[in-house]
Amino acid sequence: MSPSTAHAVDAPAPGASAPATGGRRHGRSPIAPAPATPWLFLAPFLALFGTFVLLPAGLGVWISLHDWDYTFVSHPFVGLRNYLDLLDPSSTSGGPFWESMRATGVFTASSVPLLLVVPLLVALMMNARFPGRNFLRAVYFAPYVLGVAVISVLWRYLLDTNIGPVNHYLGLVGLPDATAWLTSQPAAWVSLVAVTVWWTLGFNAVIYLAALQDIPAELYEAAQVDGASVAQRFWNVTLPGLRPVLMFVTVNTIIMSANMFGQSYLMTEGGPGRSTRTAIMRIADTGLSSFQMGSAAAMSYVLTLVLMLLSGVVFWLFRDRDAVRTRANVRTREKVRS
Amino acid sequence: MTSIQDAATPPVAGPGGAADDTLRPARRRALRYLALYLLALVFVSPLLYMLVTSFKTRAEAAGTTPSWIPDPFTLQAYGHLLAAPDTPVLTWFANSLIAAGLNAALVVATASLAAYPLARMEFRGKRVVFGLVIAMLMVPGVILVIPNYLIVSELGWLNSLTAIIVPTAASAFGVFFMRQFFVNLPGELEEAALLDGANRFQVFVQVVVPLARPAMATLALLAFLTNWNDFLWPVYVLFSPETRTLPAGLATLQGANQVRYDVLMAGAVIASVPVMLLFSFLQRFIIEGVSRSGLKG
Q1: Where do the record's region annotations for Disordered lie (chain B) (predicted)?
Q2: Do B112 and B30 share a structural domain?
């Protein structure tokens, strides 16, 4: 955090866009650039961004309105049929799609709460000076540095029913030692969620930790002087201080979980049955293996819509408290005035 | 980086060196650290087991009793892996290195150049460009996969490393990240250079880039790691054994060696070594970059 903290003193709060006016002297040069200059700087990025982000974002809509088989030359326009088929659970594309959406939902609903709470506990424990703190932080972060392919191949071995160490050690402590972790339910979900928590815990923990360190020490001291207990300090100082970061972590974790693909692809291969085939697996399979791109593009927009609605709910949940507080403030002010 | 903040950070649960530092909180704190260390050991044990198993014989790796020291210690899994023609691990390794390296260079160059005018210049259309960058930060990447497959196919890049290097280099996150850094950079040096008659590009190369090296290094590392580990896109875009990157190759390897866990672990180790080395030497930059990415909220 040092570069940003070092300049935080004399820099204005970074807003969404640079302030057009204001008493800010440095940071903006007094000499106006030639009109073409900014665009020359932007050109290489805009070329990439236009071709591989903006164009596909629009092209996807176009594809989704066609019966777009990649292997065929003609792609007849079908209007909203791809979407209507998806909404019809009895159609060939709708049924499996909602089954996969359900799988994504199960995974997201089980992993997100764990990925919000467990990393916070780790970050709280690490938010202190003690020997080996930086080393421990690196240890908890380490699995995240490895890709989903590595950790999935590894855990498929560790969770093997017969020769996997997980069942062996469970047996040693007297627990059932023959669970088919990857080929029976609900064990397969437990495995996928647990491995994902293990893999990505460090990411959220590091973000929490940075936010915890930005909470002014004076607030804790003041709370302590007021005789606040540990729990009270957590509720009244730590959590409010974490609020903006908590919102980012929540939205980000939901999106990451809803995009789950590699773990299912490599560890359970979507099984047992089709129970762990996630929406992303279904989309990739439909569009890039069966080459039914129109249908797959429609699915990806439906998934995106659901995700954006969910993110909206999260924003609303986190903003609501602010609004309530503002309303309370207004009420108090009105009381004072009257 | 942490030392300054450590001094200012009170322990959350325990009393911060106050007079009530009695035996109970002290013991509680010691227990807490002990728990953290033990937990950390359990936490990394899967990674250690992966490394250990890659040095076992086929029979030992498939044994029902886990062993933590290979007996005998052997490189036969690696030998088997390197000799198998269907799973050219060294080619995958080279592909991954080239793709991640070039992708990181492309991300840092284009994102830094684009972020600079967004942080420092006033021009028409600036809000639109920055608004698009922010909007695309929030759009889930899944909607881009299908159309990008078509675009890459039109460009003739299917089954080539270019498909892994170029499309993902359009990094809205990179622009956002570098802009945050530039905005917080004092501008006096740049103004002085401009008054001395340097043009904007000279100012950028000679004044700004040297100051931005830590941020650029952090972004390069994050881009490298992301590209090195990317899985879905390479699996579908690279379909012959010799064009694959390591993660996509691991999927092939798992398909070809269902029960050769020694070989699978050796492959996983090979895919992990470069990023683990980067992480052990540069973890400060990586962790700092990640924790800063959370502050965009």
Answers
A1: 1-20
A2: no
